[in-house]
Design goal:
Blueprint lengths: L2 H23 L7 E3 L22 E3 L7 E2 L5 E4 L4 E4 L6 E3 L7 E2 L12 E3 L7 E2 L12 E3 L7 E2 L13 E3 L7 E2 L13 E4 L7 E2 L15 E4 L11 H5 L8 H8 L1 E3 L12 H9 L3 H7 L32
Parallel strand pairs: 1-2, 2-6, 3-7, 6-8, 8-10, 9-11, 10-12, 12-14, 13-15, 14-16, 16-17
Antiparallel strand pairs: 4-5
Bound molecules: 2-acetamido-2-deoxy-beta-D-glucopyranose (7 copies).
Keywords: Leucine-rich repeat, Repeat, Signal
Length: 321
């Protein structure tokens, strides 16, 4: 075979292969659930969805090599009206897990307004930009675990996300958390905020997940496997939007913080907390919250099992009422 013929054949082969691949992605235009896992896809955009069902409800793009979502990732160009339109108006589920996404254009999700589920597990996100999820009023589950997120801008979780039931931020690099995080109003639904396995050691209000906060709080915040060492009594009340005295006692019957497996140091810093628990019926809440890690002799003891003597408290520590 001559060199020229060989090259020609090669070109034909490559072209065929390429066409086949693109066509194969949506060989059947009836399929509602598009399985694009592990196809070596690095760019998401209109061309990828050629021949696909225009009312597809799910796209699984996990295990590809996507690094960014451009504004038109889930749009196709409508030549008649000369503008981008959603690839599918019916998209409910988008799985982008196990890619290398570090950058999401603030417009990228505006073409998928009906999403209920967004999975971005195991990508390379370092921050969440204000407004990024604002176009997703129906979103119920947002999964962002296994990224490197250390910054969440204060406009990230807003009241536009009125159907959100769960935010999964496990295995990221957060260092602080809201005392009173995002909750839905009105709602009887339990809201789950999962920030296990981060580096959180304090509550701040920098993020401002909180809005329209009214009891009863039906929120569960998982803070296990973080870096809390010292409890600060001001956390209960300091950032509370209503800032009512002792409000937190009844709040905590619905608002559940889980803070086990943190390197708690049970020493005199805990005195005020223990005193207030002795005055009120906070026992259950505290034992759930704080199990000592240090000093060694108190390891694994729930804070509530300790007397103020053991903690070397100054007996004249004022009791909060
Ligand atoms: C997304 O895809 C990954 C990998 O294929 C899978 O393990 C995960 O369960 C999917 N996410 C959801 C929410 O179904
Ligand atoms: C995360 O995704 C990368 C590919 O981008 C893969 O090599 C790695 O095994 C995944 N990690 C986990 C914990 O699934
Ligand atoms: C993210 O994408 C935007 C727009 O495409 C670009 O301006 C910005 O520089 C990118 N940021 C990073 C960190 O790559
Ligand atoms: C978000 O933070 C910026 C700067 O820290 C501040 O100016 C802005 O008012 C905050 N927005 C909200 C809604 O809290
Ligand atoms: C948080 O947001 C609320 C409602 O938008 C606003 O009133 C409040 O000032 C914000 N707090 C901070 C600390 O930015
Ligand atoms: C508790 O928080 C308040 C307000 O941020 C701060 O002034 C105080 O120093 C903190 N106390 C401890 C023991 O860290
Ligand atoms: C105990 O607390 C009181 C009042 O705060 C203070 O005057 C006193 O010095 C403290 N004693 C010790 C041993 O810390």
């Amino acid at each position: 075979m001559s060199y020229r013929m060989c090259m020609l054949l090669l070109v034909v082969l490559i072209t065929c292969n390429f066409n086949e691949k693109v066509l194969a992605l949506c060989a059947d235009s009836d399929t509602l659930s598009l399985d694009f896992t592990n196809k070596g896809i690095s760019d998401v955009g209109g061309a990828l969805f050629a021949g696909c069902n225009p009312v597809a409800s799910a796209i699984d793009l996990s295990w590809n090599t996507i690094t960014a979502l451009e504004f038109n990732a889930f749009a196709i160009y409508d030549f008649n009206n000369q503008k981008y339109v959603p690839f599918s108006q019916n998209l409910r589920s988008l799985n982008l897990s196990n890619n290398r996404i570090s950058n999401i254009s603030d417009k990228a999700l505006t073409f998928s307004r009906n999403l209920l589920l967004l999975d971005l597990t195991n990508n390379s996100l370092t921050e969440l930009k204000s407004g990024i999820f604002d176009s997703l009023p129906r979103l119920e589950r947002l999964i962002l675990s296994k990224n490197r997120i250390s910054i969440i801008e204060n406009g990230t979780f807003t009241s536009n996300l009125r159907n959100l039931k769960m935010i999964d931020l496990q295995h990221n690099q957060l260092t602080s958390m809201e005392m009173w995080p995002y909750t839905i109003k009105p709602s009887s639904m339990l809201f789950i905020f999962d920030v296990r396995h981060n580096m959180i050691n304090q509550f701040t209000n920098n993020l401002n997940y909180t809005y329209d906060l009214e009891p009863p709080y039906k929120t569960m915040t998982y803070l296990d496997f973080n870096k809390f060492t010292v409890w600060n009594d001001t956390w209960f009340t300091q950032y509370h939007p209503h800032n009512r005295k002792r409000f937190y006692l009844s709040d905590l019957s619905n608002y559940i913080l889980v803070m086990s497996v943190n390197p708690w140091v049970c020493d005199y810093h805990m005195c005020q907390l223990v005193s207030s628990y002795q005055s009120f019926i906070l026992g259950d809440v505290l034992s759930r919250l704080i199990v000592c890690e240090n000093p060694q002799e108190l390891r694994q003891r729930p804070l509530t099992s300790l007397s103020t003597q053991v903690l070397h408290c100054n007996t004249s520590v004022p009791i909060i009422r």
